[in-house]
Amino acid sequence: MKFMTDTGDLLEAVLHAQKAVAVRTSMPLLEGILLEASGGQVRLVGYDMEIGIQSVIPADVSESGAIVIDARMLADITRKLPDPLVRFETVSGDREIVQIRSGRAFFSVNYRAGDNYPVLPEVARENRLVLPQRELQSLIARTVFACSTDDSRPALSGCLLESTPDQAEMVAIDGFRLALARHHRDTGDEDSEPYAVRSFLIPGKALRELQQILGDGDAEMYTSENHILFELGSSRLVSRLTQAEFLNYQGIIPTNELSLITVNTDALRSTIERSMLLLSASDQTRSPVRFRTHGEDTLEVYMVTSRGTLDEQVKIQLQGEDIDCTFNPRYIIEALRVVPDERVEMAFKGGVGPCVLRPVEGDAFAYVILPLRT
Amino acid sequence: MKTGCASSGYSVFRRSRSRIPPGAGVIFVAGEYLQAPGNIYDGTMPDRRSVLHVDMNNFFASVELLERPDLADRAVIVGGDIARRRGVVLAKNDIAKRSSVQTGEALVDALRKCPSAVVLPPQRERYQEYSERAMAIYRRYSQRLRSMGLDECWIGLEDRSLKEATRIAHEIRCTVRAELRLTVSVGVSFTLTFAKLGSDYKKPDAVTVISPQNYRGLIWPLPVERMLFVGPVLAERLHRLAIHTIGDLARTDPETLFQLFGRHGSDLSRAARGEDGDRVELESEQEPARSIGAMRTTPVDLLGLDEAAPLLRELAEEVAGRLAEQEQAAGTVKLIYRSSSFETTTRQRSLPLPIYSAGDIYRAAMELFSEQSELGDLPLRLLGITMSRLEPRGVGAQLSFADLMNASAAERAAESQPDSRAVDRLIAGFTPGLLRRGRDLLTAGEIVYDERDKRGVGASPAESGPDGGPDP
Asked: Which fold would CATH assign to domain B224-272?
C-alpha cells in the first residue's frame, strides 16, 4: 500500500474514526484504525462492533491496500506531523512495517493486515430521512444528556428521533426525567423539502459520537432492520438501532399544571450551580435542592449537604399554587444548561408531581423532571 | 363530638398510656367496689407533682372584645357569617350566655333568644396569636405543656406541692390578665382530669384547687358527663347502669367497667378516682400526633362538589400548615362529612405517595369526595379532612416514571378491591397496633378530640354517627 495525502484531512479523518474505536476489547484488531487505499482515496474506519465511523479523504494512491494501525498512536503521530503532506508506504519483509513520511520526519511503525478487519454493516439506501446537520446536532445536544447510561435498559439508553413533514423531535427518558427537543423546518425556505415521516430509536452512545462529527450540510439517514446509517458528506456513522419499545412519552408530559413560574434562565442556572458547589462526591445522589415559593415573585432555592447550606432567593413570576418540592439538582441544571432562551417557564403539579421546563413561547423543548419522594 | 360546633377542630390520636387494672370483683353494684379493703385511694402522692389546667374564658369572644371595648356591655356572639343567615355560634360572652345562647347553635336561634346580640365574624389568626402569647406565659413556669385547642392548656409542675402550684396558678391568672387583658380560670390538682374539672368549677378569673382531701366533696357530686371523654351516648349508657355522678363512676368496680367499655372504661374509672397517673410530658418529648385533621361546620348546608370545594380547600390549607409545623408528610387521607340529618360518614384512602402540600391534600380530598356518589345530592353541615400514616419528610428517594405509573396502577387496583379488605391488608402490613381502623380507635377509647369540642368522641362512638358501618 502506498499513498500520499493532506495531513490536515488525514487528522480530521483519524479523529473521527477514532471515536468508534473499541477501548478494551478481546480483538486487538479493533483497537486500530483501518486505512484502505484505492482509486484516488483513502477510507479510514473505526468500529467497535456497535458503532462504526468511516471517513474518506482524497489521496494520491500509487498502490492499493488495507492496513490497521493502532488508533491512539496514529492520532498522536498525525497530530505532530511537521509537513502539510504525508506519505504512507508499507514495506515488504518479515515484519509488517509501514513508513510514514512528512517533511523530514520518518516513522516506521507496526501495522496489522487489514484483510480481517470486520466489514461495516450494509445499510440499503432505504427509509431515508434528511435533516440539516446543525439541527440534528442541536437536537442531540439538547436531549442526549437525559439518556440512561445503563445499557441493561435499552429503551432508556437511547433517544427517539421522530420526524413529520414540518418538524423533527428528539426525546430521551432515563426513568426519572424526560428531555424533548423540537425543530421546525424552515418552511419559508424554498430549498427545504418536507421531512419524511420516520421514527428511530438510536443508542445514546452513537448520538454522543455523532454529535462530535456533525458539521454543515445535510445529514442523510437510512435504516435497515437493525442498523441506522448517517451519511455526512465524507464521513458516515453506522450504529445498531435499539430494538425496544420507547415509552409513550406524550403521556408523560403533564399539561394541566397547578403552578407556573417564569424565571430568568441565567439567574436560575447560576443559583443551581452555586447550590451544587456544596455537593461532595458522596452527596451527589442524596442532596436535593428545594424549591419553595414565597408570594408571587420569590422562589427560594435551598440546598443542604454535609458540607453546608445555600439559601438563595430568585425573582420569579408565579401563577397558581405555591410550590414546595425537592429535586436532584443535576437534573435541573442539565436542562437549564441547554435552554437557549432568556426566560423559561417551569410548570409544577404538586409536591410529588412532575415539573416541566418549557419555553415561554413556542414548543422547542420540554424537560420533565420528577421530584424526590417526600 | 358535641353536635355541630366542630369549627376548626382537629383530632389528636394518642396512644393510651394506661394498662388494664388487675381487677378482682366481677359483679358490680355501685358503691361496692370501694368497700373492699385496699381499693380506696388514700390521697397520698407518690411524689410531689401538680397539674394546672388553664381555661381562657370565652376565649374568642374575649379576644374580640379587646378590639371592641364599645361592646363590653352588650351580648356578643362570635359566629359564622351573619350575611349567610345560617351561621353557627362559635363563642359568646357572658351577657349572651345569660340569654342561654349556646355554642354550636344556629345563629338565627341564638338571635331569637338574644335579639340584641352583636355578631362578629371569627378571626382565627388573632385567636392563634393570643393563644401563643398565653402559652409563652405558661412556659415561664414549666416546659411541660399540653394544649387542647387554642384556649385550654395543661401545665405539668413536677416537684411542686399543691400549695406551690396554687401560688403559680394565681400568678398565671394575674399575668395573663395584666399582659393579655384576658381572664382565665385555673384548676389545680394532682391529676389531669381533676385539674380540668377544677378549671371548669369556677369561672371567670378564678383558681380552684382539687386536692386529695376535697375531691370527693367537689368532684364526685358532679354529673358524670362533665368528665372529659364522656359523651352523651356513653353518659346515657352509664345512667342506665345507675352511674350518674363522677362519684358513682369511682365507686364502680373497674373490672366491670373494663368489661363493659373496654380500656376506656378502666381509664375513666381510674380518672374518677384520681388515680390516672398521667403526667404532662415535656413539650420536647411529646409524642407526635398520629393524625392531623381539621373539620368545620358549615354556616350553610353545602350541596355537591362545587359548593364543598372552597371549604375543602380551607381545610387542606389548615392541615398542610400543621403538617408543615411538624415537617411531616401523610400517607392516608380521610374525608369526614356529616349530612344535614346528622349522619356522619368517613371515607379514607391510602395514597400512593405521602403528601404534605395543601394542593395535594386538597386534590386527594376532592377525589375522595367526588367518588362518593351519595354526595351529589346530600346536603352537608360538616366537612373534615384528616391525614394519617404520618412520617417525617426527610430526604426522599428520586421518583421515577415507573413509580408514577405503578402508583396510578396501584390506585386503580385498590379501587377495584372492596374497601375493607384493602384496609385489612394495609393494617396487616404494619407493626401491630400502629394502624387500626378508625372505629376500633373509637371503641378502644383512644383520645380523639376536637379543638372546639372539649368532649372526646372516643367515648361516644354513636355520636360520630353511623360511621361505624362504612368506616374506615
From this structure: DNA polymerase; domain 1 (1.10.150)
